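Late entry, 2-acetamido-2-deoxy-beta-D-glucopyranose complex.
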Amino acid sequence: MGIGADKKWLFTLFSAAFLSLSLLLLLSVSSFISPKPFPSIINHGPHHPPSFSYYISGGRGDKDRILRLLLAVYHPRNRYLLHLGKEADDSERVRLASAVRAIPTIRSFGNVDVLGKADPVTYMGSTNLAAILRGAAVLLKMDGGWDWFICLSAVDYPLITQDDLSHAFSFLKRDTNFIDHTGDLGWKEKQRIQPIIVDPGLYLARRVQIFYATEVRATPDSFKIFTGSPWVILSRGFLEYCVLGWDNLPRTLLMYFNNVMLSQESYFQSVACNSQEFKNSTVNSDLRFMMWDNPPKMEPLFLNSSDYEQMINSGAAFARRFEMGDHVLDMIDEKILQRGRHRVVPGAWCTGRSSWLTDPCSQWGNVNVLKPGPQAKKLEDAVSNLMDDLKSQVNQCK
Ligand SMILES: *[C@@H]1O[C@H](CO)[C@@H](O)[C@H](O)[C@H]1NC(C)=O
Ligand SMILES: *[C@@H]1O[C@H](CO)[C@@H](O)[C@H](O)[C@H]1NC(C)=O
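Prediction complete; structure with ligand written out below:
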Protein backbone atom coordinates (compact mmCIF):
# COMPACT_ATOMS: atom_id res chain seq x y z
CA MET A 1 0.00 0.00 0.00
CA GLY A 2 1.46 3.40 -1.03
CA ILE A 3 0.26 6.97 -0.69
CA GLY A 4 -2.21 8.04 -3.41
CA ALA A 5 -0.83 9.95 -6.40
CA ASP A 6 -2.20 13.37 -5.34
CA LYS A 7 -1.07 12.88 -1.75
CA LYS A 8 2.34 11.85 -3.01
CA TRP A 9 2.54 15.10 -4.97
CA LEU A 10 1.56 17.15 -1.92
CA PHE A 11 4.10 15.30 0.19
CA THR A 12 6.85 16.07 -2.33
CA LEU A 13 5.87 19.75 -2.40
CA PHE A 14 5.90 20.02 1.37
CA SER A 15 9.18 18.26 1.80
CA ALA A 16 10.78 20.42 -0.89
CA ALA A 17 9.50 23.57 0.80
CA PHE A 18 10.69 22.35 4.17
CA LEU A 19 14.09 21.43 2.77
CA SER A 20 14.68 24.78 1.09
CA LEU A 21 13.54 26.61 4.20
CA SER A 22 15.95 24.74 6.39
CA LEU A 23 18.70 25.20 3.82
CA LEU A 24 18.02 28.94 3.83
CA LEU A 25 18.12 28.99 7.60
CA LEU A 26 21.34 27.05 7.65
CA LEU A 27 22.97 29.38 5.17
CA SER A 28 21.93 32.52 6.99
CA VAL A 29 23.06 31.05 10.29
CA SER A 30 26.44 30.16 8.87
CA SER A 31 26.90 33.53 7.21
CA PHE A 32 26.02 35.04 10.56
CA ILE A 33 28.52 33.03 12.56
CA SER A 34 31.40 32.74 10.11
CA PRO A 35 33.94 35.57 10.40
CA LYS A 36 34.28 38.16 7.70
CA PRO A 37 36.99 37.39 5.17
CA PHE A 38 40.49 38.58 5.93
CA PRO A 39 40.24 42.36 6.20
CA SER A 40 43.46 43.00 8.06
CA ILE A 41 46.93 43.26 6.58
CA ILE A 42 49.59 41.66 8.76
CA ASN A 43 52.65 43.84 9.15
CA HIS A 44 56.01 42.45 10.20
CA GLY A 45 59.39 44.07 10.67
CA PRO A 46 61.27 46.31 13.10
CA HIS A 47 58.58 49.01 13.21
CA HIS A 48 55.80 46.60 14.10
CA PRO A 49 55.18 44.46 17.18
CA PRO A 50 57.24 41.25 17.19
CA SER A 51 55.62 37.98 16.24
CA PHE A 52 56.38 34.41 17.18
CA SER A 53 56.52 30.97 15.71
CA TYR A 54 55.42 28.16 17.97
CA TYR A 55 56.49 24.56 17.70
CA ILE A 56 54.14 22.53 19.91
CA SER A 57 54.86 18.85 20.27
CA GLY A 58 53.23 15.98 22.06
CA GLY A 59 52.74 12.24 21.92
CA ARG A 60 49.97 9.70 21.73
CA GLY A 61 46.75 10.96 23.32
CA ASP A 62 47.88 14.60 23.43
CA LYS A 63 45.53 15.91 20.71
CA ASP A 64 43.16 17.69 23.11
CA ARG A 65 45.83 19.32 25.24
CA ILE A 66 47.69 20.53 22.15
CA LEU A 67 44.47 22.06 20.83
CA ARG A 68 43.80 23.79 24.15
CA LEU A 69 47.36 25.07 24.32
CA LEU A 70 47.13 26.32 20.73
CA LEU A 71 43.98 28.33 21.55
CA ALA A 72 45.70 29.75 24.65
CA VAL A 73 48.71 31.02 22.67
CA TYR A 74 46.91 31.94 19.46
CA HIS A 75 47.37 35.24 17.64
CA PRO A 76 46.77 35.92 13.93
CA ARG A 77 50.25 37.44 13.50
CA ASN A 78 52.04 34.31 14.76
CA ARG A 79 52.75 31.00 13.07
CA TYR A 80 52.10 27.56 14.58
CA LEU A 81 53.35 24.09 13.83
CA LEU A 82 51.86 21.16 15.74
CA HIS A 83 53.63 17.83 15.99
CA LEU A 84 52.27 14.57 17.34
CA GLY A 85 55.22 12.21 17.64
CA LYS A 86 55.44 9.06 15.58
CA GLU A 87 54.02 6.86 18.33
CA ALA A 88 50.65 8.64 17.94
CA ASP A 89 48.32 7.16 15.32
CA ASP A 90 47.74 8.89 12.02
CA SER A 91 44.05 9.03 12.89
CA GLU A 92 44.83 11.21 15.93
CA ARG A 93 46.91 13.48 13.71
CA VAL A 94 44.03 13.77 11.24
CA ARG A 95 41.57 14.52 14.06
CA LEU A 96 43.89 17.24 15.38
CA ALA A 97 44.10 18.82 11.93
CA SER A 98 40.32 18.78 11.49
CA ALA A 99 39.77 20.20 14.97
CA VAL A 100 42.09 23.08 14.06
CA ARG A 101 40.37 23.61 10.70
CA ALA A 102 36.97 23.64 12.41
CA ILE A 103 37.81 26.92 14.17
CA PRO A 104 36.63 29.64 11.73
CA THR A 105 39.09 32.31 12.92
CA ILE A 106 42.10 30.05 12.56
CA ARG A 107 40.86 28.85 9.19
CA SER A 108 40.60 32.46 7.97
CA PHE A 109 44.15 33.34 8.95
CA GLY A 110 45.57 29.98 7.87
CA ASN A 111 48.54 30.20 10.24
CA VAL A 112 48.40 26.79 11.91
CA ASP A 113 49.76 23.55 10.43
CA VAL A 114 49.95 20.00 11.68
CA LEU A 115 53.03 18.04 10.64
CA GLY A 116 51.68 15.20 8.54
CA LYS A 117 54.81 13.07 8.44
CA ALA A 118 55.66 12.69 12.10
CA ASP A 119 59.13 12.23 13.55
CA PRO A 120 60.10 9.68 16.17
CA VAL A 121 60.87 11.07 19.62
CA THR A 122 62.86 8.70 21.78
CA TYR A 123 62.99 9.31 25.52
CA MET A 124 66.41 10.87 26.26
CA GLY A 125 67.52 10.33 22.66
CA SER A 126 68.72 12.69 19.95
CA THR A 127 65.65 12.26 17.74
CA ASN A 128 64.01 14.92 19.95
CA LEU A 129 66.55 17.46 18.83
CA ALA A 130 66.19 16.38 15.20
CA ALA A 131 62.42 16.89 15.48
CA ILE A 132 62.82 20.40 16.93
CA LEU A 133 65.33 21.41 14.24
CA ARG A 134 63.04 20.09 11.56
CA GLY A 135 60.11 22.00 13.06
CA ALA A 136 62.25 25.15 13.07
CA ALA A 137 63.25 24.58 9.44
CA VAL A 138 59.61 24.17 8.38
CA LEU A 139 58.63 27.36 10.23
CA LEU A 140 61.53 29.31 8.69
CA LYS A 141 60.52 28.16 5.25
CA MET A 142 56.78 28.71 5.59
CA ASP A 143 56.77 32.14 7.12
CA GLY A 144 59.29 34.94 6.63
CA GLY A 145 57.66 37.26 9.15
CA TRP A 146 58.22 35.90 12.65
CA ASP A 147 60.94 37.09 15.01
CA TRP A 148 61.18 34.40 17.68
CA PHE A 149 60.78 30.64 17.83
CA ILE A 150 59.16 29.18 20.94
CA CYS A 151 59.32 25.52 21.77
CA LEU A 152 56.39 24.16 23.80
CA SER A 153 55.14 20.72 24.74
CA ALA A 154 51.63 19.47 25.37
CA VAL A 155 52.07 19.75 29.16
CA ASP A 156 52.88 23.51 29.03
CA TYR A 157 50.56 26.50 29.39
CA PRO A 158 51.03 30.28 29.01
CA LEU A 159 50.88 32.71 31.94
CA ILE A 160 50.52 35.72 29.65
CA THR A 161 48.41 36.70 26.65
CA GLN A 162 50.06 37.02 23.25
CA ASP A 163 49.51 40.80 23.45
CA ASP A 164 51.50 40.75 26.73
CA LEU A 165 54.30 38.72 25.18
CA SER A 166 54.59 40.79 22.04
CA HIS A 167 54.48 43.98 24.10
CA ALA A 168 57.23 42.83 26.51
CA PHE A 169 59.41 41.64 23.62
CA SER A 170 58.95 44.86 21.66
CA PHE A 171 61.55 46.46 23.98
CA LEU A 172 64.17 43.84 23.09
CA LYS A 173 66.68 43.64 20.30
CA ARG A 174 65.30 41.00 18.01
CA ASP A 175 68.50 38.96 18.08
CA THR A 176 67.99 38.14 21.78
CA ASN A 177 67.84 34.43 22.69
CA PHE A 178 66.42 33.00 25.90
CA ILE A 179 68.39 29.87 26.72
CA ASP A 180 68.80 28.67 30.28
CA HIS A 181 72.39 27.42 30.51
CA THR A 182 75.45 26.70 32.62
CA GLY A 183 78.97 25.57 31.83
CA ASP A 184 79.27 24.05 35.28
CA LEU A 185 78.40 20.47 34.40
CA GLY A 186 78.86 18.94 37.85
CA TRP A 187 77.61 15.34 38.10
CA LYS A 188 76.22 15.60 34.59
CA GLU A 189 79.71 15.46 33.08
CA LYS A 190 80.22 11.84 34.13
CA GLN A 191 76.60 10.71 33.96
CA ARG A 192 75.23 12.52 30.94
CA ILE A 193 78.06 13.82 28.75
CA GLN A 194 80.72 11.10 28.86
CA PRO A 195 78.54 8.03 28.23
CA ILE A 196 78.03 7.30 24.53
CA ILE A 197 74.48 6.53 23.56
CA VAL A 198 72.75 5.53 20.35
CA ASP A 199 69.18 6.52 19.55
CA PRO A 200 67.61 3.68 17.52
CA GLY A 201 64.76 6.04 16.60
CA LEU A 202 67.12 7.36 13.92
CA TYR A 203 67.26 4.12 11.97
CA LEU A 204 64.74 1.57 13.31
CA ALA A 205 61.08 1.77 12.37
CA ARG A 206 59.77 0.33 15.62
CA ARG A 207 59.87 2.13 18.92
CA VAL A 208 62.81 1.26 21.15
CA GLN A 209 64.82 2.87 23.92
CA ILE A 210 68.31 4.35 23.62
CA PHE A 211 71.20 2.02 24.28
CA TYR A 212 74.59 2.67 25.83
CA ALA A 213 78.00 1.89 24.36
CA THR A 214 80.35 0.10 26.74
CA GLU A 215 83.05 2.75 26.21
CA VAL A 216 82.81 6.28 27.56
CA ARG A 217 84.57 9.20 25.90
CA ALA A 218 86.47 12.23 27.12
CA THR A 219 84.72 15.54 27.60
CA PRO A 220 85.40 17.61 24.45
CA ASP A 221 88.19 20.17 24.52
CA SER A 222 87.76 21.77 21.11
CA PHE A 223 84.56 23.39 22.37
CA LYS A 224 82.99 23.87 25.78
CA ILE A 225 79.78 22.11 26.71
CA PHE A 226 76.90 24.03 28.25
CA THR A 227 73.73 22.47 29.53
CA GLY A 228 70.36 23.69 30.79
CA SER A 229 66.64 23.74 30.11
CA PRO A 230 65.44 22.27 26.81
CA TRP A 231 62.67 24.89 26.68
CA VAL A 232 64.09 27.70 24.59
CA ILE A 233 63.03 30.94 22.92
CA LEU A 234 65.32 31.55 19.96
CA SER A 235 65.76 34.50 17.64
CA ARG A 236 65.18 33.96 13.96
CA GLY A 237 68.82 34.84 13.20
CA PHE A 238 70.16 32.26 15.63
CA LEU A 239 67.91 29.54 14.23
CA GLU A 240 68.99 30.33 10.69
CA TYR A 241 72.57 29.97 11.90
CA CYS A 242 71.73 26.54 13.36
CA VAL A 243 69.60 25.27 10.48
CA LEU A 244 71.40 26.67 7.44
CA GLY A 245 74.85 25.97 8.85
CA TRP A 246 77.16 28.28 6.85
CA ASP A 247 79.50 28.12 9.82
CA ASN A 248 80.42 24.55 10.74
CA LEU A 249 79.98 24.91 14.51
CA PRO A 250 76.23 24.09 14.64
CA ARG A 251 76.74 21.06 12.40
CA THR A 252 79.81 19.81 14.27
CA LEU A 253 77.95 20.06 17.56
CA LEU A 254 74.90 18.34 16.09
CA MET A 255 77.05 15.39 15.01
CA TYR A 256 78.69 15.24 18.41
CA PHE A 257 75.44 15.50 20.37
CA ASN A 258 73.88 12.73 18.31
CA ASN A 259 75.48 10.34 20.79
CA VAL A 260 74.85 12.33 23.96
CA MET A 261 71.92 11.63 26.24
CA LEU A 262 69.25 14.38 26.41
CA SER A 263 70.94 16.36 23.65
CA GLN A 264 68.13 18.94 23.55
CA GLU A 265 69.34 20.12 26.98
CA SER A 266 72.78 20.99 25.62
CA TYR A 267 72.68 21.63 21.89
CA PHE A 268 71.37 25.22 21.62
CA GLN A 269 73.21 26.07 24.85
CA SER A 270 76.56 24.91 23.44
CA VAL A 271 76.05 26.44 19.98
CA ALA A 272 75.15 29.87 21.42
CA CYS A 273 77.92 29.94 24.03
CA ASN A 274 80.67 28.75 21.69
CA SER A 275 79.82 31.32 19.08
CA GLN A 276 81.28 34.84 19.35
CA GLU A 277 78.38 36.13 17.31
CA PHE A 278 75.59 34.82 19.51
CA LYS A 279 76.90 34.53 23.04
CA ASN A 280 76.45 38.23 23.81
CA SER A 281 72.80 38.11 22.85
CA THR A 282 71.89 35.01 24.85
CA VAL A 283 69.94 35.62 28.05
CA ASN A 284 70.39 32.99 30.74
CA SER A 285 66.73 32.12 31.34
CA ASP A 286 64.01 30.03 29.74
CA LEU A 287 61.17 32.31 30.98
CA ARG A 288 59.37 29.21 32.31
CA PHE A 289 57.96 28.47 35.71
CA MET A 290 58.66 24.95 36.99
CA MET A 291 58.74 23.32 40.41
CA TRP A 292 61.06 20.48 41.23
CA ASP A 293 60.99 17.70 43.74
CA ASN A 294 63.86 17.46 46.18
CA PRO A 295 66.02 15.82 44.93
CA PRO A 296 64.79 16.68 41.41
CA LYS A 297 63.39 13.94 39.19
CA MET A 298 63.69 13.85 35.41
CA GLU A 299 60.58 16.01 34.98
CA PRO A 300 59.28 18.89 37.13
CA LEU A 301 56.27 18.46 39.44
CA PHE A 302 52.73 18.82 38.18
CA LEU A 303 51.44 22.28 39.05
CA ASN A 304 47.99 22.77 40.54
CA SER A 305 45.83 25.51 42.04
CA SER A 306 47.99 25.60 45.21
CA ASP A 307 50.83 26.94 43.03
CA TYR A 308 48.72 29.56 41.25
CA GLU A 309 49.85 32.70 43.13
CA GLN A 310 53.51 31.80 43.07
CA MET A 311 53.26 30.93 39.40
CA ILE A 312 51.60 34.13 38.21
CA ASN A 313 53.89 36.31 40.33
CA SER A 314 57.01 34.68 38.91
CA GLY A 315 57.15 36.89 35.83
CA ALA A 316 57.52 33.79 33.66
CA ALA A 317 55.85 33.59 30.26
CA PHE A 318 55.00 29.88 30.41
CA ALA A 319 54.68 27.18 33.04
CA ARG A 320 54.96 23.39 33.08
CA ARG A 321 53.89 20.64 33.83
CA PHE A 322 50.13 20.39 34.07
CA GLU A 323 47.87 17.36 34.27
CA MET A 324 45.33 17.27 31.48
CA GLY A 325 42.30 19.41 32.35
CA ASP A 326 43.60 20.46 35.78
CA HIS A 327 41.48 23.12 37.48
CA VAL A 328 44.42 25.54 37.57
CA LEU A 329 44.27 25.77 33.76
CA ASP A 330 40.69 27.01 34.06
CA MET A 331 41.90 29.60 36.58
CA ILE A 332 44.53 30.82 34.11
CA ASP A 333 41.94 30.92 31.32
CA GLU A 334 39.52 32.88 33.41
CA LYS A 335 41.76 35.29 35.33
CA ILE A 336 44.66 35.89 32.98
CA LEU A 337 43.73 34.96 29.45
CA GLN A 338 40.02 35.79 29.72
CA ARG A 339 39.54 32.96 27.33
CA GLY A 340 36.20 31.21 26.88
CA ARG A 341 35.90 27.46 26.44
CA HIS A 342 36.98 26.30 22.97
CA ARG A 343 37.87 29.88 22.02
CA VAL A 344 41.15 31.58 21.16
CA VAL A 345 42.72 33.97 23.66
CA PRO A 346 41.28 37.44 22.99
CA GLY A 347 43.55 40.35 22.13
CA ALA A 348 43.27 43.90 20.83
CA TRP A 349 42.61 42.44 17.38
CA CYS A 350 39.24 40.99 18.44
CA THR A 351 36.38 43.40 17.85
CA GLY A 352 33.32 41.19 18.28
CA ARG A 353 30.97 41.45 21.20
CA SER A 354 31.85 39.10 24.03
CA SER A 355 29.07 37.00 25.45
CA TRP A 356 28.47 33.35 26.18
CA LEU A 357 27.00 33.05 22.69
CA THR A 358 29.49 35.04 20.63
CA ASP A 359 33.24 34.78 20.54
CA PRO A 360 34.80 38.27 20.55
CA CYS A 361 37.44 36.98 18.13
CA SER A 362 34.93 35.85 15.51
CA GLN A 363 35.28 39.41 14.19
CA TRP A 364 38.42 41.45 14.00
CA GLY A 365 39.94 44.77 13.10
CA ASN A 366 43.61 45.73 12.92
CA VAL A 367 45.67 42.72 14.01
CA ASN A 368 48.86 44.77 14.38
CA VAL A 369 47.83 46.53 17.57
CA LEU A 370 48.35 45.27 21.13
CA LYS A 371 46.54 45.69 24.38
CA PRO A 372 48.75 44.35 27.16
CA GLY A 373 46.92 43.13 30.26
CA PRO A 374 47.87 43.00 33.95
CA GLN A 375 50.41 40.18 33.50
CA ALA A 376 52.41 42.16 30.94
CA LYS A 377 54.04 44.31 33.62
CA LYS A 378 55.38 41.26 35.51
CA LEU A 379 56.87 39.78 32.37
CA GLU A 380 58.28 43.15 31.35
CA ASP A 381 60.00 43.57 34.73
CA ALA A 382 61.42 40.05 34.64
CA VAL A 383 62.74 40.53 31.10
CA SER A 384 64.19 43.92 31.95
CA ASN A 385 66.13 42.42 34.91
CA LEU A 386 67.43 39.71 32.63
CA MET A 387 68.57 42.33 30.12
CA ASP A 388 70.56 44.05 32.89
CA ASP A 389 72.23 40.69 33.63
CA LEU A 390 73.02 40.34 29.95
CA LYS A 391 74.64 43.77 29.79
CA SER A 392 76.83 43.07 32.81
CA GLN A 393 77.81 39.65 31.33
CA VAL A 394 78.14 38.15 34.84
CA ASN A 395 75.79 35.28 34.15
CA GLN A 396 76.49 34.55 30.50
CA CYS A 397 78.12 31.42 29.14
CA LYS A 398 80.09 30.78 32.33
C1 LIG B 1 80.83 40.23 23.31
O1 LIG B 1 81.13 40.74 24.59
C2 LIG B 1 82.50 40.72 24.91
C3 LIG B 1 82.67 41.12 26.36
O2 LIG B 1 81.88 42.23 26.69
C4 LIG B 1 83.25 41.62 23.92
O3 LIG B 1 84.64 41.60 24.19
C5 LIG B 1 82.98 41.13 22.50
O4 LIG B 1 83.58 42.00 21.54
C6 LIG B 1 81.51 41.03 22.21
N1 LIG B 1 81.31 40.37 20.93
C7 LIG B 1 80.53 40.86 19.97
C8 LIG B 1 80.44 40.04 18.71
O5 LIG B 1 79.90 41.88 20.10
C1 LIG C 1 48.98 20.33 44.64
O1 LIG C 1 50.03 19.41 44.57
C2 LIG C 1 50.74 19.21 45.78
C3 LIG C 1 51.84 18.20 45.50
O2 LIG C 1 52.65 18.59 44.46
C4 LIG C 1 49.80 18.74 46.88
O3 LIG C 1 50.50 18.66 48.10
C5 LIG C 1 48.64 19.71 47.00
O4 LIG C 1 47.69 19.21 47.94
C6 LIG C 1 47.95 19.90 45.66
N1 LIG C 1 46.90 20.90 45.80
C7 LIG C 1 45.67 20.75 45.29
C8 LIG C 1 44.74 21.89 45.48
O5 LIG C 1 45.34 19.75 44.70
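The chain has one domain: 52-184+223-392. Will revisit in the morning.
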